[in-house]
Design goal:
The structure is a homodimer of 409-residue chains. Chain A is an alpha/beta fold and 409 residues long. Chain A has a domain of 246 residues: Acetylglutamate kinase-like (Carbamate kinase). In chain A, 34% of the residues lie in helices and 26% in strands. Chain A is built from twelve helices and 20 strands. In chain A, the strands form five sheets. Chain A has an eight-stranded mixed sheet with strand order 3-6-2-1-9-11-12-10, with helices on both faces. A four-stranded antiparallel sheet of chain A has the order 13-18-20-19, sandwiched between helices. In chain A, strand 4 and strand 5 form a beta hairpin. At the A-B interface, helix 1, helix 2 and helix 3 of A face helix 1, helix 2 and helix 3 of B.
């Protein structure tokens, strides 16, 4: 008999009918002999509705009160799911973050979990009840309600699994696992049975938005086996494990893409210490996150710095930099929102030379110009014109043989 | 500097605009030098929306989970009001029932307050903050969320005022005080400056639904001065005080009416001990509340028992009684939903003979047949055909001189 934590997102609990579907999945797991803790998000649209009310009052409503407000979203869902389980004959009890309790720091809107007391949940499980816990929320040491930030329900699931020593944390989503590429772009994309935590981190940050990055980090830290499954169709999903447990010994596990970014180039700046900070400092001060950063060797004593930001922040970042252009003594500041990032991801590339060369060759064959390159231990990312993105993903998927199930070697 | 508890109902916080109006009233009270604790209900319609979701799941959803669900209604309002106060420059902090804490028994859906710890509120007030508290909810000794039952926010206001030793508990509603009769029926009805707790109890239970009965009882028990005021227009409202403090020494303070009831007569039953219990026991077992009960002296060894129930329960009560008719050995069981109750209320009638006689004379003059009579120390109620209700209220209002401001004697 295993102890399973199941997490269902907002889409999975969007209506009373879907909540019943979730309840039936929980009951199936119990029928297999498992004990179940369920973590749920707010019904989809509810958090935005509540935030809309707050924004009618003030553009920057008080953070403590925003958390009091939006934490009601999950509280509604836990009650509805517990009622549904009971109606179907399954004993269940709901808990808010404060009731469990999930103690966090006092950073309203982006709190981090400090401690979870599993005693109350364990007593319910021992009594044969399903525990229905509100995701995304906690309580600080002074009893104030906190939230973990949007999407934080995944983190709640992993944290509860860690606190309970659960055998598996199952994240139910609207996809049935992690794929070698986006199936909407690559029809032959294949569901992976396993990926490593590290690969998942890269895939998640690169646009395969199946899981929240923080929850994956958290699961890795506490050694919680994570599985991604579909709420709406049966199947084994994708198990996210440590590298040591990897079964498919492949070089490349997937092709990720991201078209949410835009590029900014500051050119003709003096090649001297501190110049990258002088460019990026004001951008960071404005709370704009920078993703890729590329600086090439200087030419004629000047250098060009190129980086990417989220497309929503592009105009603002450009304004900030142009306001400081004279001070930076930059020749030119240019932006381009028509870009996309394409990445090849796989822990196997650590021990296999030539992945980068092969990737660049494939893109060259297709006539796709590479505008930026950035690499990590387990991924190679390139920035290309947005219009070539789909072609690049498909060509790479085929070239690396991802549409065929690999043989273990 | 006084300490005031203000309670605003669902209509007063129905929209963001109205919440701002409430915030401005709170700020006015502070400008007069008062410390303020505000108790709010859910935005009007919200509790019904949430209960509607629960009823989609089960006709009798689990009571514990219903409380988890509907307590979110007030939680949304406290957050929105605290945000609004802060936007207007007034320091404020919101608290759920569990956060204060308002400890109740574990009777979900109809919990009673056991204990309130005022320390947290006092610390906020001392720091110059407005305390915004969720009405209608509490927490039991095990940390489960409870609700006080519908309309229970008035009780929360009174209970917080008692716990804090507040100078006054102000209940803001959509009427500007307690009237001598319903102004929609009697255009000359007059707002009362004062009523006693006992009169208010009778007026509230008789359909002048300005305040929840339990909150009035509670205020009497803890000696909390209560004031009924309008959210939407300025004015002194009506102060509810103990008899000793009564200023207007009048005989009759108001004419109440109620057309929510229906009448049931069980006739021709044996006049023997226990017969009233055998009739009313099964009705009470079905959780149907009985209001007036009249039994006259027996004739020919049999008697008739007549009582009133809420109109919504009329059919069900009739079915229950008819199912047991043979056992009761009753000649006939009849019902009539076309009735209304009209009552004359006033502490002064204790010391003034002839109020009943005068009441019956007025009704006789108008040709209104009296179907049932029931009296208490400070009220006389009659049941008449519904069609005569308005006529009866107007005639009594005039006959007892309620449209004129009385002189103290």
């Amino acid at each position: 008999m295993a102890l399973i934590v199941q997490k269902y997102g907002g889409t999975s609990v969007a209506t009373i009918e879907r909540i019943e579907q979730v309840a039936r999945k929980v009951i199936s797991a119990r029928a297999r002999g498992d004990s179940v803790v369920v973590v749920v998000s707010a019904m989809s649209g509810e958090t935005d509705r509540l935030l809309g009310l707050a924004r009618q009052i003030a553009s920057r409503p008080d953070a403590r009160e925003v958390d009091v407000l939006i934490s009601t979203g999950e509280q509604v869902t836990i009650a509805l799911l517990a009622m549904t389980l009971q109606k179907l004959g399954c004993p269940a009890r709901s808990y808010t973050g404060a009731q469990i309790p999930i103690v966090t720091d006092a950073a309203f809107g982006k709190a981090r979990i400090a401690q979870i007391d599993p005693a109350r949940m364990q007593a319910d499980l021992a009594a044969g009840r399903v525990v229905v816990a509100a995701g995304f929320q906690g309580v600080d040491a002074d009893g104030n309600i906190t939230t973990l930030g949007r999407g934080g329900s995944d983190t709640t699931g992993v944290a509860l699994a860690a606190a309970l020593g659960a055998d598996e944390c199952q994240i139910f989503t609207d996809v049935d696992g992690v794929y070698t590429a986006d199936p909407r772009i690559v029809p032959t994309a294949r569901r992976l049975d396993h990926v490593t935590f590290e690969e998942m981190l890269e895939l998640a940050s690169l646009g395969a938005k199946v899981l929240q990055i923080r929850s994956v980090e958290f699961a890795g830290k506490y050694n919680v086996p994570l599985r991604v499954l579909s709420t709406f169709q049966d199947g084994p999903g994708t198990l996210i494990t440590y590298e040591e447990q990897q079964v498919e010994e492949v070089i490349i596990s997937g092709i990720a893409h991201n078209r949410d970014e835009a590029q900014i180039t500051v050119s003709g700046i003096a090649d001297q210490p501190g110049v990258a900070y002088r460019v990026l400092g004001p951008v960071a001060d404005a709370n704009i996150e920078v993703d890729m950063i590329v600086q090439n060797v200087a030419r004629d004593g000047t250098t060009d710095l190129t980086f990417t930001v989220h497309r929503n922040d592009h105009e603002r970042a450009l304004e900030i930099l142009r306001a400081g252009q004279a001070e930076l003594n930059a020749r030119e500041i240019t932006g381009d929102a028509g870009i996309a990032k394409v990445s090849v991801v796989g822990v196997g590339m650590r021990s296999h030379a030539g992945v980068a060369a092969r990737m660049f060759a494939v893109l060259a064959t297709e006539g796709i110009n590479i505008r930026m390159i950035s690499t990590s231990e387990i991924k190679i990312s390139v920035v290309v014109s947005e219009k070539y993105m789909e072609l690049a993903v498909r060509a790479l998927h085929e070239a690396f043989g991802l549409d065929q199930k690999p043989n273990a070697h």
